[in-house]
Design a protein that fits this description.
Length: about 80
Amino acid sequence: MTEDTNKEKNKCRNKGKAMFAYGIIQLSSNVVSAVALTAIAFSFCSVKKEAKVFNDCVDEVRASGKSSSNAVRFCNGGKK
């Protein structure tokens, strides 16, 4: 009977170790996901700033009397 209880304890320890490892893996994957989402959010901020600068450029060129298409071409780096 002692051998049976020792085997059962070993099974429980192995299951406990496996569950602990699973928990650590799950936690680390959540941390990686959070970092990735933060990086994506910061990239959206820079895209928003770039779009604002582009729109300001188009408005400025249009104010000088050029058409919208010419203003967009100029702000994209085209000819004057």
